[in-house]
Every structure is written in C-alpha cells, then in structure tokens.
Specification:
Number of domains: 2
Number of strands: 6
Number of helices: 9
Strand content: 5-15%
Radius of gyration: 18 Å
Helix content: 40-55%
CATH topology of the largest domain: Spore Coat Polysaccharide Biosynthesis Protein SpsA, Chain A
Strand order of the largest sheet: 1-4-2-5
Mean pLDDT: 78
Largest sheet: 4 strands, mixed
CATH superfamily of the largest domain: Spore Coat Polysaccharide Biosynthesis Protein SpsA, Chain A
Distance between the termini: 42 Å
Order of helices and strands: HHHHEHEEHEHHEEH
Low-confidence stretches: 1-19, 36-47
Structural class: alpha/beta
CATH architecture of the largest domain: Alpha-Beta Complex
Shape: globular
Oligomer: single chain
C-alpha cells in the first residue's frame, strides 16, 4: 500500500486512513476538484482539474453509489468509465491493462481473480469461500462463462452503461456487480476477463458478511427468471 501512497501525487507523503486521515483525504479531494493551486499546497504539480467529488446526503448502498458515479461520468462525456476499490486492493497499475483490453475490442474489461494468472492475497479461508463460492453460484444460476462475477474492478465502454437501464437495477449491495455484468452479457456486449491479483486492505475491515452473501443468493435467481 505504501508504494501506491507514495506515487499517488508524486510527493512521497503518505495518506493515512485513520479517522483524522479520512478527513484530510476528503479535504484534499475537495480541493483538487475545485482548484489547481490547492493541489500544489500538498506538494504536487497539478496543472488541470483532475477530480470530481460527488457528495450524497446519506448511505443508500453500494449500487446507488456506483450508479450516481456512472451517471455523472456519462453526463460529462466520458467514453470509458472505470470502477475500482480505492483502498488499493485493486492495483492502480492494472488500470492501463483494463483500458488496453477495451481498446483492443472488449466492451467490458473485468479484472478477474479466478482466471489463470489471477488470484487473491492475504485472505482467510472463509472470505475465499464466500467470494469464489459466490461467483461460482452466480455463474451456474445465470448460465454465464465469466468466472469472476463478484469483482468490482472494471472498465466499461460508455455504450455498455447506456444500454443498462439504471432505473430498473434491483441490487443495492454486492450483487450489483453480478447484475451489471449479467446485463452486459445479455445485451450482447463482449466481456473479457483480465487476470489481476487482489490484495487485502492493510487498514479497515471488509463490509462483506453472511447477510450480504445471503442477499446476493436471493437476488441472483431473480435476475435469471424475472
């Protein structure tokens, strides 16, 4: 994690993730979204606006948060839209590989832990079972060939997101990732899995739980048979 924190703004300054640190990161994000000079106050040489920050009134779940971001990106004219975990479980160095896969003809490039060359690091047996078991369950129920259906490291062509009717998306939790990929496949888009190594976060705790897993198990059959 430290190597990504060091390279984030080219300053060599760590970005702490404790409670005080979160406030600092939020302040930095707001500054970067408002004015170039604010970034320079943190020691970086930013010459253009590089960040938009969306603030919501309250927590509505993972799915609505992603949809808000997708709508914003599409409205801003983005041709490619990426999603990833920002705790460095997803390696930012892999962003270029996902984008290259889309450039080479994929409509949706999906960072995959469960294809040859992919994997996970620092996970316990229970979390491995929930994650890989959930992907296998969804793949069998939905009749898909995609091996990592629960992953959240993706690069979309804008046409894929435009074809997904956000108002009809049912999933609010982690089943949202499954639903998005399923809708893309059903719409005839080409999905390509790119092997990645998923590393567990160094600070904080995963929100994954048996309740979230149960919600996904209940929603997946409804996607297939509705």
């Amino acid at each position: 994690m430290s190597r990504h924190r060091t390279s984030l703004f080219g300053t060599g300054r760590p970005v702490p993730l404790d409670r005080e640190g979160k406030v600092r990161v939020q302040h930095l994000a707001r500054c970067l979204s408002r004015h170039t000079a604010a970034g320079e106050a943190y020691g970086s040489k930013i010459t253009a606006k590089v960040l938009d920050v969306l603030h919501r009134a309250g927590k509505e779940g993972l799915g609505p948060a992603y949809i808000a971001g997708f709508r914003h990106a599409l409205a801003a004219g983005a041709e490619f839209v990426m999603e990833m975990d920002s705790d460095f479980s997803h390696d930012p160095a892999d962003l270029a590989r996902l984008l290259r896969t889309v450039y080479d003809g994929a409509d949706l490039a999906l960072g995959s832990r469960y294809v040859p060359g992919g994997g996970v690091s620092d996970w316990g047996l229970l979390r491995r079972f929930i994650s890989e078991g959930g992907s296998t369950y969804a793949r069998l129920v939905l009749g898909l060939r995609v091996r990592d259906l629960t992953g959240g490291f993706k690069c979309f062509r804008r046409e894929v997101l435009e074809a997904i009717h956000f108002d009809s998306v049912r999933s609010r939790g982690y089943a949202f990732q499954v639903e998005l990929t399923y809708r893309a496949v059903r719409a005839g888009f080409r999905v390509v899995e790119v092997p990645i190594i998923f590393r567990d976060r160094e600070r904080g705790q995963s929100k994954m739980s048996w309740r979230i897993a149960a919600e996904a198990m209940w929603l997946v059959p409804r996607l297939r048979f509705r």
